[in-house]
Predict the structure.
Amino acid sequence: MFTRRKMFLVMVLVIASLALLSCAKSTDAADGAAPAEKVEKIVWKSSGHGPATDPSQIFHDKCCAAITEASGGRLEVKAFVGGSVVPAYKELDAINEGVLQMGYTCPMYNLDKWPAAGLISSRPGGLPGEALRTWFNYGGGADLMNKMMGDYNVMTFPGALSPLPAEVFFHSKVKLESLEDLKGLKARCMGDGGEILKRMGAATVIIPGGEVYEAMQRGTIDAFEYSTIATNWKMHFNEVAPYMYLSPARAPSDPQVFFVNTEAFNALPADLQEIVKVEIDKWTQAQHEYLVFESAKAINEFKKAGVEVFKAPVEIEEALAAEAAAFYEEKSKSEDPIFAEIYNSMKDYGVAYALSN
């Protein structure tokens, strides 16, 4: 009897559960409720331009992770080190082709496509860091860069440029005491600065940043520029160059810019577009502030490591400034109109900035 009663109770409970479930389904149908839609996850690939130890690569990776987190995982941005997806300095080509959806690189690495790219880069006579970022964000710089790139499937926006402090003028195996010492100097120097120094007699070459250390070890080059004092300390350049020369004359800032694939960005919902912009703005500014602080400390680290630190000779600075002015005036007349438009915009803002500071 006990067993029959127990079975009866179980059957009653089962019938009651089924009845409740049926009522719930009927209520949902009556209310017109639809099952929750599954949010589709978007995956982007993004690459820096330098080796893993370069702070620009580190902050690039932090930015990618921050976008992923801020979006709640709806937009996952996978970070890749420079050269791991496409050859270093070819990031914009990969973004244009959709191999990458985002990248963080220096504009001057694209002089083969746009001669004006060197203007918004590490260039002699350029704007110092704070002025460069404010021009880019508020003075139409981002819009001018997009205009320069034309129908290329790549874009940028205000907040995407990290100006960075002035670059080290040169790390060198030989002393640079006069203008004559530049003649025949085998030096890694990128962008317009390299062209201008070549006009001054230096034997400049283009070498990816990740290969500079070995090039100095092998004797392929005698000197090089790369980035800020702090960045170069983390790259262990004290081990290959006994002399370090400082001056803002060659590169008063070392700008790097986030670029995105235009179609991929425009396909994002508005809230994800805003997250991308906000996080990029945050991390580009953070990298600049970090390197300003760390560069002040890194000078002493180089000295403690036995590197002799000098200011670049005034004779070289003055000759470089004069050659740069002539170079850009010539290019403004010979290149497409966008070159002069960017050059004059930066020059006019530079004059106003100098008066106000």
About this structure: The chain is about 50% helix and 15% strand. Residues 127 and 346 are 7 Å apart (CA to CA). The longest helix spans residues 270-304. The chain has two domains: 42-164+254-293, 168-252+305-330.
